[in-house]
Amino acid sequence: MGGTVTGAGVTARGLGLEGPRGWAFRGVSFEAGxxxxxxxxxxxxxxxxxxxxxxxxxxxxxxxxxxxxxxxLPKRMAxxxxxxxxxxxxxxxxxxxxxxxxxxxxxxxxxxxxFGDSLRGLLRPRAERxxxxxxxxxxALVAAGLEPASLPKGARTAVxxxxxxxxxxxxxxxxxxxxxxxLGVDDTDLKLSDAERAEVWALLRxxxxxxxxxxxxxxxSPDGTLKVSTQATGxxxxxxxxTSERTDQPSASQESQETQKPTSQETQASQxxxxxxxxxxxxxxxxx
Length: 288
Description:
Elements: E1 10-19, E2 22-32, E3 37-41, H1 48-55, E4 63-68, E5 71-73, H2 77-82, E6 84-87, H3 101-116, H4 119-122, H5 126-144, H6 164-176, E7 182-185, H7 194-209, E8 213-218, E9 226-229, E10 236-237, H8 270-285
Parallel strand pairs: 3-8, 3-9, 6-7, 7-8
Antiparallel strand pairs: 1-2, 1-4, 4-5, 9-10
Helix pairs in contact: 3-5, 3-6, 5-6
């Protein structure tokens, strides 16, 4: 991404968020260094998306605190948003089906230049600004592993014509244009084959190796990541805690929701469930 990024360290202490239907998540505590791959694992409806948005400064936690790159949440949400970005979050980063890949990239680069860069950057000559925009887009595409030339119509391919993996890569590329220190990715393994899931995890690991800290929502964490459960069981290193030993029982505050770990059929409904849950919590907690 145009050089190594200094990742953000992330720490949570008793973090929780209560919405209209009760606690979205509660009692989340963990500590991760810069450049970590953090996985938020849990069944559909267990607050995974809400936790992702809270850690990136886009939802206000109602109890506990978090620290992102030395900035305390929920007190300084705007400051955390400036160093973080999110991708593939239903209702937040939805791609426009009718727009092309090139149009999405150009629009995001313009928004970054207008709202994300310094005033001095806005005053630079037009040719210099366009060159910087091109460099940012190219670096983001490389980091996300998306090659427009391989698409059916190149960069002019509409989003509705993209395969699921291509759309995920595009969403990640858009988030990386701002060169965030913390990247949040939702529904990482939703509706993907085993081979595609392995491909996604390899991609996210490569992003962390470049320096960026990544927080990814998934149904099942791969080995070698810092696993954070929304079931108030605390973080675990997945290479030390095999899947067979993992428990997915809901906490007392979530029993009334009767959530269970999704089966292969139920996983398909994950996006709608988490999206409604996020919308409910946003209505209660407020989105900055």
